[in-house]
Design goal:
Layout: E1 9-11, H1 19-28, E2 32-37, E3 57-62, H2 67-78, H3 84-96, E4 99-103, E5 113-118, E6 121-127, E7 144-148, H4 150-165, E8 167-168, H5 170-180
Parallel strand pairs: 2-3, 3-4
Antiparallel strand pairs: 1-7, 2-5, 4-8, 5-6, 6-7
Helix pairs in contact: 2-5, 3-5
């Protein structure tokens, strides 16, 4: 039994189970992932091909995306040896249609959340600040909770409402990421 199979769990930034580890574990078991975040920082996104091997669809709705900021961050990542493969990986996911991005600047949600689904539907939802790197940048606690069953299904329905009202930004994001993409970068097959 892993996270997302039992009762709700509360995690903090000090625990051995952190957001990054739990997100990766749930992603490995998912065929669909739906993410609602107010902002994405490319430099912190750290997903691997192994974690997303079963994934058919990754839908991300963002409160707002600034093209100039995305371009600057992508160009910086291009020269970062550890993060450049993630830039390539995300560009490839967009190109394959497995990653879909929409923006919904007039919507509002709190906190950020991710719904994990497999063939029988939503099985877990991760609720709280979506921060992939340690240490967490603030002094106070960063609580994240994981819920299953009815809570996951409710979050999936609410995500679908957000998704329907949002507008597609996938091709614009792909253009920005593709221009910043390093010429030759080997993808990381495992986490790290």
């Amino acid at each position: 039994m892993g996270i997302g199979d039992g009762p709700a769990a509360l995690l903090d930034e000090r625990g051995s189970l952190d957001f990054r580890g739990v997100f990766g574990d749930l992603a490995r078991r998912s065929s669909e992932i739906r993410v609602a975040v107010t902002r994405i920082r490319l430099s912190t996104v750290d997903l691997t091909a192994v974690e997303l091997a079963r994934l058919r669809e990754l839908r991300v709705v963002i409160s707002e995306m600034n093209a100039l900021s995305l371009d600057a961050e992508a160009r910086t990542l291009r020269h970062h040896p550890r993060r450049a493969p993630n830039l390539v990986f995300m560009t490839d996911l967009l190109n394959e249609g497995r990653l879909q991005l929409r923006s919904s600047p007039l919507a509002g949600w709190a906190p950020d959340f991710t719904v994990f689904s497999r063939d029988l539907g939503a099985f877990a939802v991760l609720v709280g600040p979506h921060w992939f790197e340690r240490p967490y940048p603030h002094r106070g606690p960063a609580f994240v909770s994981v819920h299953q069953g009815d809570a996951a299904r409710m979050a999936a329905r609410r995500f679908d409402e957000l998704w329907t009202e949002a507008h597609d930004i996938g091709s614009a994001a792909w253009s920005i990421l593709h221009r910043a993409r390093p010429p030759q970068v080997a993808l990381r097959a495992t986490g790290g």
